[in-house]
Design a protein that fits this description.
Layout lengths: L3 H18 L16 E2 L7 E6 L4 H4 L10 H7 L4 E6 L6 E8 L4 H9 L5 E4 L5 E5 L4 E5 L3 E7 L14 E2 L4 H5 L4 E5 L2 H11 L8 E11 L2 E10 L2 H13 L1 H5 L2 H6 L5 E3 L2 E5 L5 H11 L5
Antiparallel strand pairs: 1-9, 2-3, 2-10, 3-4, 4-8, 5-6, 6-7, 7-8, 10-11, 11-12, 12-14, 13-14
Helix pairs in contact: 1-3, 1-4
Length: 295
């Protein structure tokens, strides 16, 4: 006999398979037009990821997120065009939030959820309805052209819809990520760069405003471009000077060796870095840093 929880998971996967398999022509998500000010994700995440699912598939498959290793999930990704995700720190009580774009048979999906007692209909504070499974700690909402999901560390219902107006997209991120298969920005950038410097034996603080990354498959390897954004040109110039002075210490740290294999370039109040071509193993090291040990 199939256990209740196992049956619930099967129904959930079947519903999602129906959702994604019925997707038609690719859609360009309105929320991510070049001049978008906000993205439909909650604030407070460690990292925000935006990806063309097909072009960035080889990178998505390497993300250290256990849900992505499931065979059914991989089949669903085959039918996904665009996604945005937020990965949260454990202190938030959340794991991740996901928004995808397509054309969805939401009426059929809602019928399937209503037939499974482990999924309960809920209503968000904004008045929108969604489904929640306490056993799976997962919430899911569907419209005719979008799917929203949220994974929690608790059994209480977690609204998959972002609180309006969503997360503010940092200045310069839209232009930086243009045409990149997968892009992300890191929250708490100053804390992150301080941790990187300390790990490399450089106990200094730099006022980094934002850290952006573009990732792209390239002939079996991966190309990565990073941008460290500062409040002023002088601060950005100071970053380059510090890296030059600390070249010996940096070369002994694996992460720093990957990030700064090439000479940083001053670009206004930004420091741009074109990393050396990375192997799969090297990319995994970088992803572990970018995702902050998320599992």
């Amino acid at each position: 006999m199939v256990c209740k929880n196992h049956k619930s998971v099967i129904v959930f996967l079947l519903v999602l398979f129906l959702i994604f398999s019925c997707q038609t022509t690719p859609r360009i998500p309105d929320a991510f037009h070049e001049n978008a000010a906000n993205a439909p994700l909650d604030t407070g995440a460690n990292v925000y990821i935006f990806a063309s699912a097909k072009e960035a598939r080889s990178i998505i498959d390497l993300l250290p997120i256990e849900e992505l290793k499931n065979r059914q999930t991989r089949q669903m990704l085959d039918r996904t065009d665009y996604l945005a995700a937020a990965l949260f720190p454990p202190t938030s009580g959340k794991r991740f939030q996901l928004v995808t774009w397509g054309k969805y048979p939401h009426s059929q999906a809602n019928m399937a959820f209503s037939a499974d007692r482990s999924w309960q209909a809920q209503r968000s504070e904004s008045g929108q309805s969604y489904w929640h499974s306490s056993a799976n700690r997962l919430s899911l909402a569907l419209t005719s052209n979008q799917a929203f999901a949220a994974s929690s560390l608790r059994s209480q219902p977690l609204d998959p819809y972002a609180a309006s107006p969503g997360i503010k997209i940092p200045d310069g991120f839209n232009s930086f990520r243009r045409s990149a298969p997968l892009s992300c920005w890191l929250n708490n950038s100053s804390v992150i760069i301080e941790r990187m410097l300390n790990n490399a034996g450089i106990p200094m603080r730099l006022p980094v405003r934002e850290i952006f990354f573009n990732l792209e498959p390239a002939g079996g390897n991966f190309e990565v471009t990073a941008r460290f954004q500062f409040d002023s040109v002088s601060q950005a110039r100071g970053m380059i000077a510090l890296l030059s002075l600390a070249a010996g210490a940096i070369s002994s740290d694996q992460l720093f060796s990957l990030l700064f294999a090439n000479q940083p370039v001053l670009n206004g109040n930004n420091v741009d870095i074109k990393m050396a071509s990375l192997s799969e193993r090297e990319l995994l090291t970088l992803l572990d840093f970018l995702l902050g040990g998320f599992r």
